[in-house]
Amino acid sequence: MTRQAIVLGSGTSNGVPSLGKHYPPEYLANARNHRTRPSLLLQGPTGNVLVDCPPELRLQMIREDVFDVEAVMVTHTHADHVMGMDDLRSLCLKYQRPIPIYTAPRYQEDIRRIFPYAFQQFPKGIWVPRFELYDVPAVLNLGGLEIRTFWVEHGPLPVLALRVGGFAYVTDVSHIPEEAWNQLTGVETLVLDAVRYKPHPNHFHFDRALEVAREIGAKKTYLTHLSDDYDHDKTNAELPDDIELAYDGLRIPF
Q1: What CATH number belongs to 4-253?
Q2: Burial 196-223 (b: 16+ CB within 10 A, else e)
Q3: How confident is residue 124, by pLDDT bands cut at 50, 70 and 90?
């Protein structure tokens, strides 16, 4: 039975290529330098769990032939992680029910503020997305998977991280608290934030991400939430064998 993670989007908040910038033709010629905003799909034996809803969500899921989602986990409510939630309306229509959304109470408030119409009544025949909001527990059983959740720091904000078996996903992070480190012990495959080469106050940058990857010691680490600092093939050629750049459409069995 299928158990894999699909990196739907590996880019940072601007996406790559970004608006208003000229890029060398050879950079644009590499499809792996085209990065949509960050999201992940967990495919379990009985269903799919979506992690975050970026602005390109519809395109990402169509690209990967994903037709169903059992539930959604929202790591935090920055625009690049939630502004595609309206695309879930098509699934609400398909299932004739709301989509379960798991996140922190503070982010539930943001979702209600950003998408107030998802919680309002409309005349029959008008379809809007419908969300059922739940506090995220320490362990979620969805899609036939046991998903363990924990919190890391993204500047001043808490961000949801997760582990399924030997796989862990840690996006938008500038600091990993001690209790979160314990959740990462023995991880075999890690997807980790590395937004750019220059230090950033709210994200791991390249050098810090490599340090953390070494400390965690996963057999394989994929760097994500990537800006256009990174030329996929050139950067990978300089990395050790156990660390690579993620890319849109990367599939990771676990």
Answers
A1: 3.60.15.10
A2: beeebebbbbbebbbebbeebebebbbb
A3: confident
